Amino acid sequence: MNEGRSLAKRVEEYTYHRDRLRALLGIEVVDVAPGYAQVTLTVDEKHLNAAGVCHGGVIFSLCDFAFAVAGNSHGRLGFAIEVSISFFREANLGDQLVAEAREVHMGKRIGLFTMEVANQRGEKIALANGVSYHFDEPFPPEDP
């Protein structure tokens, strides 16, 4: 495993074990690399809105977690400062959703990412764009 992928994996493990919303929603990590993360979630009853389909906030949170892992994968603490999302179709009970976050640009302070969500049939569910602000502070912290 190269150094960049090793650091990205450490970031993923740190984030995975400390992100309480990830645990509550049941988000799992599939893959991580520098500037990239793939996460998944199976839509169950707790994810449904009043219309009986997956709540948009759940899909947004899936994107946001992928964004957090990919955004911090270079080992510098970063936070989202803007995220927008477009929904193309509903996700239903039992659907396996996969979100992929990809780095488009990473500067000294500002990062730009895209997050795409698809279901198990490869149908696009949503597309999000995120901007992150990064500090010189290491992530994960050297002494958690």
UniProtKB/TrEMBL annotation:
Protein name per the record: Hotdog fold thioesterase
Record domain Thioesterase: where? 52-125
Q: Which UniProt keywords are given for this protein, alphabetically ordered?
A: Hydrolase
Question: What InterPro entries does the database record attribute to this sequence?
Answer: Acyl-CoA_thioesterase_PaaI, HotDog_dom_sf, PAAI_dom, Thioestr_dom
PANTHER family, per this entry?
ACYL-COENZYME A THIOESTERASE PAAI (PTHR42856:SF1)
An example of a GO molecular function for this protein is: acyl-CoA hydrolase activity
CDD domains attached to this UniProt entry: PaaI_thioesterase
Q: Coiled coil where?
A: none
Per its UniProt record, what NCBIfam families does this chain match?
unchar_dom_1
What is the taxonomic lineage of the source species?
Bacteria, Pseudomonadati, Thermosulfidibacterota, Thermosulfidibacteria, Thermosulfidibacterales
Listed Gene3D superfamilies: Hotdog Thioesterase
